[in-house]
Amino acid sequence: MTFTDLFWTSGEGLPLHARDYAPIGGVPGLPVICLHGLTRNARDFEDLAPLIAAKGRRVLCVDVRGRGLSAWDPQPLNYHPGTYAGDIVALLAATGIERAVFIGTSMGGLITMVLAAFKPEAIAAVVLNDVGPELSPVGLARIAAYAGGASRFATWAEAVAYVRSINGAAFPAYDDADWDRFARRCFDDKDGAFVLACDPDISAPIKAAAAAAKDAADKTGAAALAPDMYPLFRALTKDRAVLLVRGGISDLIDPPIVERMCAAAPDMAVVEVPGVGHAPMLTEPQAWSAIAELLDRAP
């Protein structure tokens, strides 16, 4: 399915990009805004977006700043959910969209939580893809280990091997063709090499926070506490439909975290995608069925 390239600018003038899919059928409804994970880009939704568009909804798949066709930030410490949420506010203003359904994968879900504090009236319903107000240190450590690391490979085989090495445990059923397609979402062919479609410095705030936490621990002997995201989560889940999609073998959202999320948001729907880790692609039958049901009920 074709899309158009939509560009807008951030508050400080950075050019930003989204793929804009027009509705092609179904009953017209509010647009859907899809937000990807830390090192990914709008291409992650290239299979999901047409399914949503066929239900009568415009779909905007965002390249968060520093990824895809969006500009890199000259100040890497700006790469955090607060900045990203501000960029989405600018997107809404540029497109005249007053309300939308949000689908957030991993970091995209955190952006949506922050957006609920910035502009709650803009969020009609939410899909949180394998993310929540707290995250398992196991998954966080795995992501921190590769974010901002190797990003340029001389051959396509090396590029495919790289994405397989860091994502293989999450998609154990993938074959060679699946990994080739996965890599095409992650890499650009640039200057005779294959380069990840993101700024290597997107991990700068993560590294800075880790260094600050270590310094504080060395001085006090106590581990630093992670920010409490539950107030944002409760605000997000209040008076709107929310769906949590969890990978059945996810190392970022474990069952105890899901239990605590359900206790904080009793009306939240939950679906698990078996045999998939962090994070589902959302076209798996279990995930898409639950998303379609949410869209059928959302404005």
Layout of secondary structure:
Elements (H helix, E strand, L loop, with lengths): L3 E6 L5 E7 L10 E4 L12 H6 L5 E5 L17 H15 L4 E6 L1 H12 L4 E7 L7 H10 L5 E2 L2 H12 L8 H11 E4 L2 E4 L7 H17 L9 H8 L3 E7 L7 H10 L4 E5 L11 H13 L2
Parallel strand pairs: 3-4, 3-5, 5-6, 6-10, 10-11
Antiparallel strand pairs: 1-2, 2-4, 7-9, 8-9
Describe the structure.
By secondary structure, the chain is α/β, with parallel strands linked by helices. It has a domain at 4-136 and 230-297: 3-Layer(aba) Sandwich (Rossmann fold). The protein is 38% helix and 19% strand. The chain is built from 10 helices and 11 strands. The strands form 2 sheets. An 8-stranded mixed beta sheet has the order 1-2-4-3-5-6-10-11, with helices on both faces. It has a 3-stranded antiparallel beta sheet with strand order 7-9-8. Strand 8 (187-190) and strand 9 (193-196) form a beta hairpin. Helix 2 crosses helix 3 and helix 3 (107-118) packs across helix 8. The longest helix has 17 residues, at 204-220. The chain is globular. The model has no long low-confidence stretch (mean pLDDT 94).
